[in-house]
Amino acid sequence: MFRITILYGAIREGRLSIRAAKAIKSALEASGKAEITFIDIKDYNLPVMEARLKDMENPPDGLLDISQKLATADGIVFVTPEYNNSYSGAMKNAVDYFTKEWSKKPIGIVCGSDGKQGGLNASNLLQLLVLAIGAFPMPYKLLVPELQLALDEEGQPKNEALSKSIQHFVKEYLWFVDAISTQVQKGK
Ligand SMILES: Cc1cc2nc3c(=O)[nH]c(=O)nc-3n(C[C@H](O)[C@H](O)[C@H](O)COP(=O)(O)O)c2cc1C
After folding, report:
1. Which atom of ligand 1 is least distant from the CA of 116?
2. What is the Cα–Cα distance from 151 to 136, expressed in whole angstroms?
3. Interstrand relation of 34-40 and 2-8 (parallel, antiparallel or unpaired)
4. Domains contained in the chain, CATH given
5. Which of 31, 32, 68, 151 to pair with 23, CA 20 to 30 A apart?
6. 130 alpha carbon to ligand 1 midpoint, in Å?
């Protein structure tokens, strides 16, 4: 069983990308190979980052909680909407707080938008962010165009093509987490 932490990065009232986060959570759980911890950044009311967690004398409990959930994961999935051709500011702000938590983690990327491109720009930039934090971005990404049509409120896909993409993502991701986390364990 792999310990997978999903970091979901939209805090907007009425956010649709929560559907993509629910979809990938359900699909990973249904694989029977993943135990999911879900971090909804909205639950934490994180201020704009002024100091990294490692440099704080009295860190808030919320940051310690996120740190533990990231550090203990075999793999992480980032889920974000596309805002202004990039990932959400809330996602970047959360990522910036942490350092060693990311080290050598396999990270899958799920992006969504209400338009036709499914967060393609956000996903490309997010792969670069993952490299910057010393983690490994999975090459295959899950993009969800027209979130409002593609998934119901519980994250159930409303078309066959998306169901297939989700299944493909899960298969690739579990392989990727296995490959990298096995090497990480060997190196300990
Ligand atoms: C500030 C802002 C900027 C946005 N920029 C883009 C964009 O560049 N490309 C795009 O496809 N959708 C863009 N959108 C639309 C989002 O894709 C849309 O809101 C979608 O539902 C996902 O975001 P949500 O989870 O906040 O709902 C933008 C939305 C907001 C609020």
Report:
1. 11
2. 28
3. parallel
4. 2-186 (3.40.50.360)
5. 68
6. 21
User: Which structure tokens are listed for 187?
Assistant: 């190196």
What is the C-alpha R_g of the chain?
Answer: 16
| Ligand 1 site, CB within 6 A | 10, 12, 15-17, 81-85, 112-115, 117, 147
Polymer length in residues for the chain? 188
Q: How far is the CA of 184 from the centre of ligand 1 (A)?
A: 36
10-residue averages of pLDDT along the chain (188 residues): 97 98 98 98 97 96 97 98 98 98 98 97 98 98 97 97 97 98 87
Number of helical H runs and strand E runs in the chain:
6, 6
Q: What is the residue with the minimal CA distance to atom 17 of ligand 1?
A: 113
Q: Report in angstroms the alpha-carbon separations of 137 from 61, 90, 109, 185.
A: 28, 19, 7, 18
